Amino acid sequence: xxxxGRECPELRLIARTPGGVRPCRRLACMSGQSLFARLEPLLPxxxxxxxxxxxxxxxIVKPWDAAAVRWALMYPDAYEVGLPNQGLxxxxxxxxxxxxxxxxRTYSVWPDLEALLREHGLPQFTVDGHRPVGDFDVLGxxxxxxxxxxNMLTALDLAGIxxxxxxxxxxxxxxxxxxxxxxxxEPIAGxxxxxxxxxxxxxxxxxxxxxxxWKAAGAPGGRTELLARLARRRLVxxxxxxxxxxxxxxxxxxxxxxxxxxxxxxxxxxLSDLDSWPYPKAPLVPLAETVHERMSVEIFxxxxxxxxxxxxxxxxxxxxxxNIETIGAMVEAGLRATGFNEVGLLSLSSADHTExxxxxxxxxxxxxGGNVSLSLPSTRVDAFNVTLANxxxxxxxxxxxxxxxxxxxxxxxxxxxxxxxxxxxxxxxSTAYAHGWRQVKLYFMCGLPTETDQDVLEIADLAREVIxxxxxxxxxxxxxxxxxxxxxxxxxxxxFQWVGxxxxxxxxxxxxxxxxxxxxxxxxxxxxxxxxHDGRPGIIEGLLARGDRRVGAVIERVWREGGRxxxxxxxxxxxxxxxxxxxxxxxxxxxxxWFTTRERDEREVLAWDHLDAGLDRxxxxxxxxxxxxxxxxDDCRWTPCYDCGVCPTMGTDTQIGPTGRSLLPVVGVSAGxxxxxxxxxxxxxxxxxxxxxxxxxxxxxxxxxxxxxxxxPAAVGSGTPA
Length: 722
Ligand code: B12
Ligand code: SF4
Prior knowledge:
Blueprint: E1 13-14, E2 22-23, H1 36-39, E3 69-75, H2 79-82, H3 86-97, E4 101-107, H4 111-119, E5 138-142, H5 149-159, E6 174-178, E7 194-195, H6 201-216, H7 222-232, E8 242-246, E9 252-257, E10 295-298, E11 300-301, H8 311-315, E12 320-321, H9 324-338, E13 342-346, H10 356-366, E14 373-375, H11 383-392, E15 401-406, H12 410-415, H13 422-434, E16 439-446, H14 453-474, E17 480-487, H15 504-520, E18 528-532, H16 536-545, H17 551-560, H18 574-584, H19 592-596, H20 617-628, H21 646-650, H22 679-697
Parallel strand pairs: 3-4, 3-5, 5-6, 6-7, 10-13, 13-14, 15-16, 16-17, 17-18
Antiparallel strand pairs: 1-2, 8-9, 11-12
This protein binds cobalamin and iron/sulfur cluster (SF4).
EC number: 1.8.-.-
Protein name: Fe-S oxidoreductase
Keywords: Oxidoreductase
């Protein structure tokens, strides 16, 4: 834990080489002091220095000494990917709203700055206050993908925090993982102190309360007692409190709690009333270029369409919609707070919101003639979505429409439960092309369970049909269809968690066959763009997704051998992972193949079975069997419950409209010309929607953040690094 305002009592060790140690030069510095004066001279020597200076619109720097609990929040990827991350922005704002809590952000530094930090003995720092990450009470790391694990090790090492939780001392931060990949944190179990499963809004506040009370009481019992308190309150999963036993054949025998005061199965957190948590109210406005430069509003969480490959859909059940009024208020408040001119309506399947038509028309009317454009991430294949897209593009560009049939053949789409027929697709794209769209993008996966070459070749047939239909409907020949294909990776807590992953050789051979077939077809060769990645990164993602604690040594070895930014093609090295697997796994009688391409049977204990995502294991297995029988399953939003287990286990229920209400009228901002408002004004817009909501329909706000404290405007980031 950070030391409050006193001299650093111990030598914080900063590694000159990864994993090596040497004493930090800032031995006499005060905890929480800004390192900016020492960092600044290094910045002209690195690529895109602006990513390290902080001071973004709506960023916050609070006084260090006034905080009882301090969080460093990390997205373990480059700033340009990490900054727009909604999950982290939400937690940042919720934590900073508490008067005695401080939260700052940190992202992965690129290898050029990593080398300079090591050379100059500077640690991993936050971009808000440029404070050493090692000084904070908690380092919260968000994993939306497993390929960020090596980047976490770089950050720990640069921060002077021991890589392994068991070697950390009382002055080290608690390292807490969250995000979708953390639903099987076993490969990183040794590196993290605790894991939050599921929604983080209430969890971070609960963790903060426990830490605050424990610190105030003089930190009784040290780290272990703190972790035990967090585990007993069902806030986190603490891997060190669970032992794993293996069978002689390498499979897991059992995972058992080694204390009797903690749950045998830690459970996920589920926010039950999204309207009470309208975050982020004031999204960050980056100074440097990022992957998404728009304001995103999450219109619902969870998805019950039941696509069998989709971990996100399974682990975020049940569906919880935000109502149309809150969405309207959030869009308005967010635009005022940021000055963005694009709004993305975010969710796992945005067109499924029960009032999406009204939302689309309402927003399009509200901003008609101005410079605010609207977008949906990707859409289901049906003609209604083209109508939606037409509404959304009233003010913007008609760049292209994206649909995701995922499987090439109808048979395969039944296996994965993606209920789309070729006729649906052709009808939908015909409507799109007839409405003036010229570019359609289709997403597919390769390597799906039971897939054959023929299934993949049918992607070419679909593309041909789409081009023909487009030419017919539009009367033009110059239309395009882009086929984008990703390798399928089986994920925990899905019906496909037992399947053998297709080897990268199989995936690559099928994709080559498909590419050659499209190229050889003169009718469509020029009209079809073909995008795919080679299958090898998918195999490593598969290892990390379904690995167990033995995979931790592989991650460490890869990192020591230079593994960084594994999600980036130019940095990823399959050979490095392959050789680390050979060195670390094979002596234990397991291997890369064993973890990835091997099919598991029903009785095998899976590395994540002791973690409760709410889904009934028997239901998942039954659904896997239904997949093999090519049987589809409807969406439980509109049919009777299928007993997946989530609602009774989590004490939640599907929350959907329609509410019959409308978007709140806009007050005080001229349509299409958003102005940057202060954080307090924004809170007022959202809160006025909240009160309209509770006055109108009595939907309780009792679930809301404790105290919902407004910020002191003086504490809001001024744009100058502290
Ligand atoms: C916008 C988006 C993107 C954007 C922006 C990503 C970003 N930096 O945020 C872009 C286009 C760049 C992108 C890229 C990718 N994405 Co994406 N993306 C999404 C999308 C549509 C929204 C994410 C989001 O904002 N969710 C809402 C927020 C509130 O949820 P959240 O982030 O999970 O956070 C909550 C909790 O998880 C928790 N939490 C999160 N972190 C932490 C940390 C701590 C300490 C705690 C306590 C709690 C906590 O608290 C938060 C609030 O409740 C999701 C789908 C979806 N609707 O979730 C896919 C999704 C996250 N992406 C996905 C994937 C696969 C990718 C890519 C790997 C794709 C690729 N092959 O390149 C890359 C990875 C990029 C990277 N390095 O991270 C998958 C993840 C799948 C999985 N884990 O099984 C998803 C779920 C889509 C899907 N259905 O497949 N993505
Ligand atoms: S428990 Fe029933 S209603 Fe709830 S998500 Fe599962 S199938 Fe749907």
